[in-house]
Amino acid sequence: MRRYLAPLLIGLGGAAVLIWLGVWQVHRLEWKTAILAEIDSRISAAPVDLPPVPDPEADRYLPVRVAGRTGARELHVLVSTRARGAGFRIIVPFQTDGGRRILLDRGFVPIDEKEAPRPPTRLEVTGNLYWPDERDRFTPDDDRAANYWFARDVDVMADVFGTEPVLVIARGTTGDDTSVSPLPLDTSGIPNDHLGYAVTWFGLAAVWLGMTGLQLWRISRRTL
């Protein structure tokens, strides 16, 4: 029996750790799913007027409505969509009817429409406040001369346009210019891979137990 003890303890102990990791990922999945549901609920809530001083944490995802006029300049942020492929987000300064200057993410245009004329126009916009965190050490530097941006840096873009560091991502617009298709804010870009991790850990636990059973069988064959 002593021959079986060490591999049995290692096998059961290793499987217990792997199963615990799988259970932990299941709990993480429940936690992340609840967070995403809360964000989705906040995104789709009834829009309100733009707060006087939006807070990047308290007002993240806040639905708002604004009316005003777009500026003449644009910033083009490279983006890829599942439905339409590669293109650009169109970021413009937006002068509200109340006299405030903010940033507006109007949405998507295909690559071949990057330089299409889009003169200043009046728009009524419903959208969401957001402060994207899209830049990491792998993000290329923006090519400002060619107007190629690779991340929506709200503070940097606000400095370029001389606006408040406030970005509204359009969900819907009404007005004279409908050449830009809104890319509404949603939770599709927030990773939720915990189910895959849980399946991996449980699968490894099954393999570990199988290998343990095989080792015990080999030991039994040697003792015959």
Automatic annotation (TrEMBL):
Keywords: Cell membrane, Membrane, Transmembrane, Transmembrane helix
CDD domains given in the database record: SURF1
Transmembrane domains' residue ranges: 195-217
One GO location term (cellular component): plasma membrane
Highest taxon of source: Bacteria
One Pfam family named in its UniProt record: SURF1
PROSITE patterns per the UniProt record, alphabetical: SURF1
Cellular location(s): Cell membrane; Membrane
Topology class, membrane: Multi-pass membrane protein
InterPro entries to which the protein is assigned, alphabetical: Surf1/Shy1 (IPR002994), Surf1/Surf4 (IPR045214)
Family membership noted in the UniProt record: Belongs to the SURF1 family.
Protein name: SURF1-like protein
